[in-house]
Amino acid sequence: MVPVGVVWTGGVVQEAPESAINAISGCVSRLAYVKIVVPMQVISGFIASAVMLLAFTAYAQTPAAKPAAGGNAAARAVKNPVAATPASVTAGAGAYKKYCAFCHGVDAKGNGPLAPKDSNPPSLVDATWTHGSTDGEIFHLIATGTPTKTAMIGFKGKMPDADMWNIVNYLRSLGPKPAAR
Length: 181
Prior knowledge:
The chain is mainly α. It folds into 2 domains: 6-61, no CATH class; 73-174, Cytochrome c-like domain (Cytochrome Bc1 Complex, Chain D, domain 2), CATH 1.10.760. Helix content is 42%, strand content 4%. It contains 7 helices and 2 strands; from the N terminus they run ββααααααα. The chain has helices at 18-25, 40-61, 73-76, 86-99, 101-104, 135-144, 161-174; strands at residues 6-9, 12-15. It has a two-stranded antiparallel ribbon. A hairpin with a 2-residue loop joins strand 1 (6-9) and strand 2.
């Protein structure tokens, strides 16, 4: 506790002027007058840290080379290296449930319970594939996410490539068969 008539300023204890004590105390002859001074270096450091945190957050949320709506020519040319065997489809179903079902739904119809508000994940079992329908384009979407307001994140580095290809095979087992794979 700071004694009456003493001022603490940045680690230095000093006596407060009598006029300051009288101005504060009013009727009471002597009250504690405490003044805490925060050095500008602390304030400047806090502001600099906040600005750096905001800049890092903005950088981290910047999408990296996401595909345009309508497909991706480079991804379209990529062939699926994983054969669509029953083992691949089963592995894809497991990976889908782990990574995708939260937003796209257990039945892959775009009705997942944890999809971000107003993101409207598409059905993955119909014939409409806005961002491309080849295996390579679907793999690319899983890896990089989507460029639109759907808020789909990319899973590159978060999921093994083999799991992404297995998910492609699993989705193929659910929906209509495309003309070209």
